[in-house]
Design brief:
258 residues, alpha/beta, 8-stranded mixed β-sheet, two-stranded antiparallel sheet, DUF3557
């Protein structure tokens, strides 16, 4: 989509702002901001507000992308990420049409859904089996899967968006990372950056002061940084923990014991 660079911003975006619950009519000014003034305002705007407004307003998106985005804390996972305490979670949910769902489904959907793709053959066979059982008691297991994006703010306020489940959740998450957060930017400024997942974003670079490497390849995590423009001040590597069932070792001979 071709986007023309906006030169002024006025109350024409009021509907977008009201829908996102960020400002009210009383907060809007009737005097348009110049392009340079607007870029200055963006610099000090909450990054979550910037990103969510850019996702629904094409006019706003161009300027938002070319203005440096500063984040205090960013945690990146395979199906979620957290920006300054606001959590963005992508999950697979179940939606029942015309029939009441099992009691556990609404609660699980409200929590964000499943963080893994639905199984194909095995799950379908199990569903057929349970469908026969439930039909005896007048219940139905007919449902559809959807992808659900749950945005939870520091205050606990939730914004939920649902979309068609037509691709693996990992592929959907990488697309979301690129479309919502990383794509179209030259770099991203982060105070403390934690990697528990590295999305497929090409040659994109992060500028971070503090790095925490979780369950990802250490070399790949370090290569994702632009340390020339922003040298690291600290780095922490979290080792993967392995759990062994109590008593398991005593029943097996040590591999190096004679």
């Amino acid at each position: 989509m071709d986007i023309t660079k906006p030169r002024t911003y006025s109350c024409s975006q009021e509907c977008v702002l009201k829908n996102r619950h960020y400002v009210t009519r009383n907060h809007l000014t009737a005097k348009p901001l110049t392009y340079l003034s607007f870029k200055c305002v963006l610099k000090y705007t909450d990054p979550n507000i910037r990103l969510q407004l850019a996702s629904v307003c094409a006019e706003f998106r161009y300027t938002e992308k070319i203005s440096p985005l500063n984040i205090d804390k960013l945690n990146m996972n395979s199906t979620s990420f957290n920006i300054n305490g606001t959590d963005y979670n992508l999950g697979v949910i179940r939606h029942y049409r015309g029939v009441p769902p099992p009691a556990w489904v609404p609660d699980r959907n409200a929590e964000g859904g499943e963080s893994h793709d639905k199984k194909k053959k095995i799950e379908e066979e199990v569903e057929i089996h349970w469908d026969h059982i439930y039909s005896r008691y007048g219940f139905s297991l007919k449902f559809e899967h959807y992808l659900q994006l749950t945005i939870t703010s520091n205050s606990g306020t939730k914004l939920i968006e649902r979309m068609k489940y037509d691709r693996p959740i990992k592929e959907s998450m990488d697309y979301f990372y690129n479309k919502f957060l990383l794509g179209g930017r030259a770099y991203l400024n982060v105070g403390t950056l934690r990697f528990d997942y590295l999305p497929e974003v090409g040659d994109f670079k992060f500028r971070a002061k503090h790095l925490i490497i979780g369950h990802v390849d250490r070399v790949k995590a370090e290569n994702a940084l632009d340390e020339i423009a922003c040298p690291l001040e600290s780095k922490e590597v979290i080792e993967r923990e392995w759990f062994i069932r109590p008593g398991w070792w005593g029943h097996r001979r040590h591999p190096f014991r004679m």
